[in-house]
C-alpha cells in the first residue's frame, strides 16, 4: 500500500487569522436562489472579522445580509507541494454605522471590480478551521521519490 506521506497540521485560531491576513483574495460561499454560490473576492481582516467591500445593489450584498456564510482563503505552492487553507463560518452583516464605515474606508481595502464599491460586509467567524500541508520529496528504498512530511 502506498502512502503519499501527507501531513496536515491543524492550525490554531491565531495562526488562521495570521495566515488569512497575509493574502488579499478569498472565496465567499453563500446561498443564492436556494443554491450554493461561490464568489472570488478581495478582503481584509479588521478586528478579527473579514471585511469585503462591494456594490450595495449587487447580488453579493443582497444575498449575504444577515446570513450564515462560509469564507475560505488559501495559499498553495505547487512546486513545493505545500500550502495552507483556512475556512471561516459565521454571520454576515452589512455595516451601516457611518463612523464604522469611515474607519473601514481607511483600512486600505479597495475592490478590484470596476465601479463604485462603498458597501461593506462584515463576517464574524464563529468557526475557524485551518490546515497546513508541508510535503517534500525524499527517495524511497526503491529509489523513487515519495512525498514525506516535513
Summarize the structure.
With 150 residues, this protein is mainly beta.
Write up what this structure looks like.
The chain is mostly beta strands. 14% of the residues lie in helices and 52% in strands. It contains three helices and eight strands. It has helices at 13-21, 59-63, 98-104, and strands at 8-10, 25-32, 35-46, 49-54, 68-77, 82-94, 119-139, 145-149. Strands 2-3-4-7-6-5 form a six-stranded antiparallel barrel. The chain starts with 7 loop residues before the first strand and ends with a strand. Mean pLDDT is 83; it is low at 138-150.
The overall strand count is: 8
Helical fraction: 10-25%
Strand portion, in percent? Answer: over 45%
- Pick out the low-confidence regions: 138-150
- What is the CA-CA span between the terminal residues? 21 Å
Alpha plus pi helix count: 3
Amino acid at each position: 500500500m502506498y502512502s503519499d506521506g501527507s501531513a496536515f497540521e491543524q492550525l490554531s485560531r491565531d495562526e488562521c487569522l495570521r495566515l488569512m491576513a497575509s493574502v488579499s483574495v478569498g472565496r465567499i460561499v453563500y446561498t443564492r436562489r436556494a443554491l450554493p454560490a461561490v464568489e472570488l473576492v478581495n478582503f481584509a481582516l479588521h478586528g478579527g472579522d473579514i471585511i469585503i467591500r462591494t456594490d450595495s445593489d449587487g447580488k453579493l450584498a443582497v444575498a449575504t445580509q444577515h446570513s450564515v456564510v462560509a469564507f475560505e482563503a488559501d495559499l498553495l505552492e505547487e512546486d513545493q507541494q505545500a500550502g495552507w487553507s483556512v475556512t471561516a463560518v459565521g454571520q454576515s452583516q452589512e455595516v451601516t454605522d457611518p463612523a464604522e464605515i469611515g474607519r473601514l474606508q481607511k483600512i486600505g481595502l479597495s475592490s478590484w471590480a470596476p465601479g463604485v464599491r462603498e458597501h461593506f460586509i462584515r463576517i464574524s467567524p464563529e468557526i475557524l478551521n485551518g490546515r497546513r500541508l508541508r510535503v517534500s520529496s525524499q527517495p524511497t528504498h526503491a529509489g523513487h521519490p515519495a512525498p514525506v512530511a516535513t
